[in-house]
Amino acid sequence: MSQFFQIHPENPQARLIKQAVEIIRKGGVVVYPTDSSYAVGCQIGDKSAIERVRRLRQLDDKHNFTLICSDLSQLGLFAKVDTGAFRLLKAHTPGPYTFILNATREVPRLLLHPKRRTIGVRVPSHPIALALLEELGEPLMSVTLIMPGEQEPMNDPYEMRQVLEHQVDLVIDGGYGGLEASTVINLTDDEPQVVRVGCGDPSPFMAQA
Question: Regarding the domain delimited by 3-200, which CATH topology (the fold level of the hierarchy) does it fall under?
C-alpha cells in the first residue's frame, strides 16, 4: 500500500517533504506534482526503483529519462551545456520544458539512451518539486505520469492513489495536475528541435530552427 501525503502546493510542509525524501532515499517510487503535470520519480542511481518506473510506464530502453534539477548549476553537472544551449536554458528555466542534451559521466548508464548517450533535463517551477529537490540534494529521475495506452497524464491525486497503490510507495497530493506534459526540446544538434509540444510555448525554439 502506498502512502498519501497532502502537501500544500504553495507552502509545502517541511515535515512532509522530509518524510517524502526519506522514502525516496530508501528506494521508493514517488508520484509528485510539477509545473506541467504529475510525474513519477525515484533516486537517480537506484536500479530497482528505475526498473519499477519502467514497468509502471511500460517503457523500453530507448526512452529518454529526465533528470529533474533544482537549478542550472546542478543541471550542468549532468548535461553538457555549450554557450548557445546555456542562453536558451537561462531564458526558459525554471519552466515547463525538458531539454535533451548530451550526458556527462555523472549520469548513471542505465538512464542513458543506449545509442545517443543523451539525457533529458528540466528545472521545474513548482514549490513541491523544488522543495523535494532541495531536501534530496540531487536530481530526481523522473517521467511524466502517463499510463500505458493513455494520451494524457493522470491529474487527480485520489485516482492515482486508487490505481497506483500497489505500484508506488508514495502519492503526493498537491491538488489537481495539468493535462499536458512538458514541451521537449532537443539541443544536441546545431539548431534546437521541438520533439514534443506540451504546455511550454514551443515558438521561441521554432523561430531558431
Answer: DHBP synthase (3.90.870)
